Structures are given as C-alpha cells and as structure tokens.
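Human: You know discrete backbone vocabularies at least as well as I do. Show me how you would write down a chain together with its backbone fold. No explanation is needed for now; the record alone will do.

Assistant:
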Amino acid sequence: MSRLAPGVLREAVIDTSAITQNTRHLRALTRVEVMAVVKADGYGHGAVRSAAAALAGGATRLGVTDVAEALQLRRGGIDAPILAWLHAPGASFDEAAALGVELGISSMDQLQRAAAAASADRPVGVHLKVETGLGRNGIAPEDFGAVFAEAARLERIGRLRVTGLFSHVSNASPDDDRAALARFREASEAASAVGLAPRVRHLAATQAAIDLPEMRLDCVRLGLGIYGLSPFDDRTPAELGLRPAMTLHASVAAVRRVPAGHGVSYSYTYRTDRDTTLALVPAGYADGVPRQASNAGPVVIGGRRFRVAGRIAMDQFVVDVGDAPVSVGDEAVLFGDATLGAPSAREWADAASTINYEIVTRIGPRVPRREAQR
C-alpha cells in the first residue's frame, strides 16, 4: 500500500528527528561548537525546519550563503547566531545588521559596508574570511595587514565586532587540507598581531571535521552530515552513525502491459526484451530528478528494486517491473534510508555522475515537503 496521501503525485518526507540526531552525534564526535549549514533551503530539506532541528541537536550557530537566506530564518522565528558569507557587489547590510545577522567579510569594501550598517549602540558582527588556497572569495594574504588593521580600528570605535575568522578547505587530500590549515594559522597570527581576537575560528566542513581532528579548531561547519549523508565515497551514512533525513517517493500513476520490443520514453533508448509491465512514476527533471540518471536510477516499488527504463522526462519516468504485481497508487521510493531498504542518494548520484549533495539539494519546489510522523 502507498504511504502517500490520496491525490499526491510526489513528495519529499523530511525526518527532522534524524537531523537532530545527526547533529548531536557529530557534535559529540568533534567536541567543539557546531555551526549547522542550512543554505540552499537546508540542502533541500527546508531551511527553518532544518535549523530548528539542528539547534535542538546542539548546534549553536547557523550558516547560510547570503543575507536573503538569513532573513528567511529570522522571519521563521530563528533567533540563534546566523552567518551569511557571500554578498552581491554593493549590497546593503542594513537589514542584516538590524536583525543581528553576522556577515562573512572577504574584502576591504565589504568590511567598510558592514561598518556603515552599524548604529551607535549596535556594532555589526563579522567573520573575516581568508583565502587559504581554494581560489574563491576571501581576503588575499597580501591584503591581510591592511584589512585586519582596519577591522581592528573599526572594532575599537564600536562599529564592528570581529566574532570569527574562517576559511574553507578543498577536500582534495589530507595534505592539501593541512596546507590550508597552515595558511589559516598564518592568517590567525596576522590578525592577532594587530589586536584582533576572534573567538570563533572555523575551517572544517563535514568531511574534514570527521577525518582531520586538527581542523576542528573552535567550531565546525556541518552541512551534508546533519542531513544524514556521507561526504566519503567509501563510507556509508550508517557506517558514520548518520541517518538520512529525506525520503523522496511518488505514487505510481499508470501501469501498462507491453510486448517485447516496445519502445520506452523519448528517443527509445530503452526497448523491452520480453513481454513486461511498465510503471509510470510522476517525477522528472522539473522536480530535480536528474535526467543524467536515465536508464540507471534505482527505484523500489512494493519492496522490490528496479531501475529507470528509458529517458527521464520533465515530469515523469518509466520503470520496467517485469511480471511484478504493481498497481496504480503503489509507492515508488527513489531514495531514502538505505538501512530501511530504500535506494540511497549516493546511488542516484552515481547513476547521474554527480554527488549526493546535488541529489537532495536539487529537489525542486514542485515537490511538497512533509515532516515525518513520529
């Protein structure tokens, strides 16, 4: 029997208790402050619900990409410290400052605009981001002296509060990440030399936080891990003590018996090799199901595992179920908790030649989110 409500084509079920449990587990492992990363609508799980669940699991800070995401959390009733670290050129920080959103600062211009958003009795909290080899944003080493000195001056006159110093590692190799850590320590020394004493130094995301204890510093930024997914190719969530929080499923919308040699979906990249039954699943690339997983994505229907047959279309795909007894309204599970028999997000990532981060994050707004019943 389908576990979808009548009339529901497709939905993502979010188990917020898994987010809480995963956060608690990783906090106990790392033994430092946890910043839960809830950018991109909580990696597709819902930003506000994910933030609340992570805070319940012991996270004390939240991380997002931009100010708009931070303001969404504030409007959703989240009052914990929030850091937003990527900003449009010339963007105003006034609303962020008024709501106590901390700002990641990657340049002198951003530093000065953050100070301009301060009021007489309300300095703006900032985290200075430094370049340590990733080649993205961040204060360049040749600019450390000038930017840090100006940050110290602005802090002394009450315009800024330099709360953090941070960067990001590549996860290319442990040696590459340790080289980034060495550069980060040089930046930390340069900041100290001009009188800055940021309380929260953070460098590690989930992968480095688990595997490289020396990278944990004062705080770790946990994204993928709190949603119960593994950042490693050779370790499953279960092996890391994590539980996937999202299950994507749909109702079988049509069933058709066809003869051998019947073409399936656009371009007939799949033709049946026997008399068989085709089941139509109403989820497609408009919903975030990757077209690149055509003829490969795994699906469980009625407790049995099948794979996508033919091209994944904008709104639907087909599964060849052979002689299995499948009916309209049956539940088709695309991914979820592998320990419960569902395909994993990693399997879909492998089928689409991508990463599990993308699989969950790309699930689109046409897919309703429903919190799991406990």
